[in-house]
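As the next step, I needed to go through one protein, both as residues and as discrete backbone shape codes, included below for the reader:
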Amino acid sequence: MEKKRIHPEGPELSRIITGVWRWHALSSSDTEALINTSLENGITTFDHADIYGNYSCEELFGYAIANRSSLRSTIQLVTKCGIKLLSDKRPEHRVKHYDTSKEHIVASVERSLQNLKTDYLDLLLLHRPDPLMNPAEVAEAFSTLKQSGKVLFFGISNFTVTQFEMLQSYLPFPLVTNQIELSLFNHQLFFDGTVDTLMKHHISPMAWSPLGGGKFFTASETQKQLEALAQHYTCSLSQLLLAWLLKHPSGIFPILGTTNASRLTEGANALTVQLDRQHWFAMLKLVTGKDVA
């Protein structure tokens, strides 16, 4: 599989990323099988967050790779922090809220390292923009973690253009990605300056929910036309939707959040679908209902 730097000064990641947010219900053997399926298809990057699976997914993944020490140098571990859930595992949380304090960021990283059975993270993202975020304090936390070697690179998730630029202005090194919701069905960020600004800074976005949360799995005229186009390319509907994102010059890294091994393989093979420019715009018209201006 193609590997690409997400930023000129950032990590090299597999162009398709495996997301683990639904893995909490998997057995140990199923977890290992999905990791193996990813690797067999050239997917070496795994997207985590401290909160996934009610704070359980990182630990499940860590157990699955605990006896495979040679694997660490060939995979890239991404995780996120900054959200505090109401949870039986966190009884001190009285309300769901954000916390981007230095204390929480550093403590969250320490726990993620322990859960993932590793001594460093390839990439740490702030999960959501926090209205109480002190950018100077975040910069201090990031610098401390970078200097210690516990986190190699940093980014953000779900940030607006101004939130990104504000935080970046406090940092002595670049934010290397913004993980955002992007798909054919959620394409607004292509037109509101979010993706443009990332490209201005030579940053490739990571795309969560790249299939639109299954919106196309409904009996509709739009789906019928998309299926006809998929037949034209001799690919599945999922591969067509991924190819639509992969066509964009920002160099998007789609995250596949499936627990189905065959769908993971199918998604990895979307890189072979070379979508025509006119078909890209035809797909956009299908969901907007109108031609471009």
Remarks:
- The CA atoms of residues 84 and 130 lie 11 Å apart.
